[in-house]
TrEMBL record:
<feature type="domain" description="Restriction endonuclease type IV Mrr">
    <location>
        <begin position="44"/>
        <end position="119"/>
    </location>
</feature>
<keyword id="KW-0540">Nuclease</keyword>
<keyword id="KW-0614">Plasmid</keyword>
<dbReference type="InterPro" id="IPR007560">
    <property type="entry name" value="Restrct_endonuc_IV_Mrr"/>
</dbReference>
<protein>
    <submittedName>
        <fullName>Restriction endonuclease</fullName>
        <ecNumber>3.1.21.-</ecNumber>
    </submittedName>
</protein>
<dbReference type="Pfam" id="PF04471">
    <property type="entry name" value="Mrr_cat"/>
</dbReference>
<dbReference type="InterPro" id="IPR011335">
    <property type="entry name" value="Restrct_endonuc-II-like"/>
</dbReference>
<dbReference type="GO" id="GO:0004519">
    <property type="term" value="F:endonuclease activity"/>
</dbReference>
<keyword id="KW-0255">Endonuclease</keyword>
<keyword id="KW-0378">Hydrolase</keyword>
<dbReference type="InterPro" id="IPR011856">
    <property type="entry name" value="tRNA_endonuc-like_dom_sf"/>
</dbReference>
<dbReference type="GO" id="GO:0016787">
    <property type="term" value="F:hydrolase activity"/>
</dbReference>
Length: 289
């Protein structure tokens, strides 16, 4: 975040809006935060405040302002005095002061005695990932993603029952050229009541040998089975196969939850903090009960 007062005002407003939307009270969901709000005091003088909002509950209007100061050093008592001076002739407003760097002791005392709530509103740092009781939030997760590839049949040879083919077909086995697609050619094993395409056979190899990487050679023998492809059905005595189980591709991935943390609001009076993530809010983190 650049050292720009307007940018900081927008940052504080965005976090406050997220807090409203996380509340259970539906009255708070529709609050509009106004920036550079001018309010006329009892003396007829316009006073400008960085952020302002109001809402009505049970017939009572609640008004709040936040002064946002993007200082490189701690806020002094003079800044609290200046805020109190602006509010002196404007009744019934809840004052809040927000900065990134903290407050001098005199500023804290003056604010506490005049019911000014002090906030530190900032981006995340390493201290945000542990509560005072030592309970950690998970900042990083390192994951090794294993990408498994299916077994691949590299060699396929059927042993055809020549006598059956001669008696039941007009196919000249000497001229027959078997070229099959793994998803269309299938074996129908009558004896074992089983039927599978070559692609399904590859899937079986993958499940049965998922940790046995490399090349495998297997021969299946049949009593009553048929190879079906391209409208042809041939009785087979066996099939000889070679297939490869490839090693998995391991891809390390780091999930950085800190990138999901939009900002942090520390409530000095309550000694707690609220962490605003992109999709949720963690309240009272680190609070001493």
């Amino acid at each position: 975040m650049s050292n720009n007062g307007r940018d900081y005002e927008e940052f504080v407003a965005s976090l406050q809006q997220a807090l409203f939307e996380s509340e259970k009270w539906t009255e708070l969901h529709n609050i509009t935060i106004e920036r550079n709000k001018k309010i006329t005091d009892n003396c007829g003088i316009d006073r400008e405040f960085d952020l302002y909002w109001e809402y009505e509950l049970a017939g009572i209007t609640y008004k709040t302002i936040i002064e946002c100061k993007d200082y490189a050093s701690k806020v002094t008592i003079e800044k609290i005095d200046a805020l109190l001076g602006k509010l002196r002739d404007i009744p019934d407003i809840k004052p809040i002061f927000a900065t990134k760097t903290g407050y001098q002791s005199g500023a804290k005392t003056k604010a506490e005695r005049n019911k000014v709530e002090l906030l530190i509103v900032r981006e995340e740092n390493d201290t945000d990932w542990n509560a005072e009781d030592g309970t950690p939030l998970i900042k990083y997760v390192n994951v090794n993603i294993h990408i498994m590839s299916e077994a691949t049949i590299t060699f396929f040879r059927p042993y055809i029952d020549a006598e059956w083919a001669k008696a039941n077909t007009n196919i000249d086995l000497d001229k027959l050229k078997i070229e099959v697609r793994s998803d269309l050619a299938f074996v129908e094993d009558i004896d074992r009541s089983d039927k599978y395409t070559l692609k399904e056979l590859q899937e079986r190899f993958t499940k049965e040998n998922e940790d046995d990487f490399g090349e495998h050679h297997v021969t299946y023998k049949y009593k009553d089975a048929y190879l079906c492809f391209d409208g042809i059905k041939l009785k087979i005595m066996a099939i000889e196969l070679k297939y490869v189980i490839p090693k998995p591709i391991i891809s390390p991935v780091r999930i950085d939850f800190s990138k999901e943390l939009v900002g942090v609001v520390e409530y000095l009076g309550r000694k707690s903090k609220t962490m605003i993530f992109k999709d949720h809010v963690v309240k009272n983190w680190g609070q001493k009960i």
